[in-house]
Amino acid sequence: MAAGSGLLLLRAVGFAVLLLPVVPRGPPSVAERRCFCQVTGHLDDCTCDVETIDAFNNYKLFPRLNELLESDYFRYYKVNLKKPCPFWNDNSHCGIRDCAVKPCPSDEVPDGIRSGSYKYSEEASNLAEECEEAKRLGAVDGSLSKETQQAVLRWSRHDDSSDSFCEADDISSPDAEYVDLLLNPERYTGYKGPDAWKIWNSIYEENCFKPQNVKRPLASGRGESSVSLSGVCVEKRAFYRLVSGLHASINIHLSARYLLQDTWSEKKWGPNVTEFQQRFDEVITRGEGPRRLKNLYFLYLIELRALSKVLPFFERPAFQLYTGNKSHDAEMKNLLLEILHLAKSFPLHFDENSFFAGNKKEAAKLKEEFRLHFKNISKIMDCVGCFKCRLWGKLQTQGLGTALKILFSESLIEKIPESGPSYGFQLTRQEIVALFNAFGRISTSVRELENFRNILQNMR
Fold this sequence. Notes:
two-stranded antiparallel sheet; 460 residues; 6 strands; mainly alpha
């Protein structure tokens, strides 16, 4: 990958794909039209159009979301970057200095986050204490009702429950450390070649749904192969487009924050137009570039829809973004709710009701297959050799997995009580931080597309 990021799962895998050879192009004005002329109008499987997303994201949502992600609650993410790859023996790691991740000294992390890092709020921390007490009482007191015992059991098993789309880190592990995301930004790291290609190939060829008679290994360095999805059901088609959209997002970050100058006195990062065109120009990519960008917009709609659906969970008075700074926490919760209400107001949301809507037995089987495929992709993040790419890959994978969990838990979210704990649907702090940061990466990609469009137009 090449940017410290992670894809759809890989976006996180910000591992830049092998750089393509520079191909002669026409005047910039022609190239600009080639990159963007087909990325307009309606999106497949959606009622939305690209122009509506651009206006909504770039001028309404993006500025507010950026402010939220700079706050203490969302900038600190606990992650285990030392987990071994579960799929192949590979102890090689990227030796490039820009691949390194600098963890936070414990005293730099706000007390409120460290004291309850495994829960999502002060309410959840209190609930956990009550549950532990209930367990102790249950050992000697048979008067606890079955409902209380079941509630305790549900909470203790939450992280391993069947609604999870990701292989989450054990953040109580000694190898799990806090990372300041603002000090370890996702960008081009120089990680590429056979190791990065192996990750992408595993994602596309072994974990993406596509017609069984199609087997096209990734051409080294060229991103995903061209696959016709005609005849593939909407759920499997959506899965492939989510992966492709995340892949596109990673490559946009790589191109937008490219290492332009590296001298003893300074490093300069900025947009690399040639790199962008190599990945998205219609001619250079043999027609795939515009399709990849449209898949990015599809991914945007899926994650935006999840944010609009999860509003009741965050609206409860008992929920807070707990860091220990009471006034700042209240301010950030207000901003969070403003963003969620804004997401809900989007006029052309994706309609997820078309997913898994057929025969109940077959739909349940397909949903489980969908979940396990995605969970497998989240495990592949531990095979990424670049630690910064691994960090952003794991975070963005967990973020998208949390979005899918939300979309598939609508009935549970609707039953959340206005006050008191929510046993049916829960989000940990890790899931919340990943959800919003992952969407922040997608939102940034959409905004960067406008920047590249303007740069190409001005190069005439």
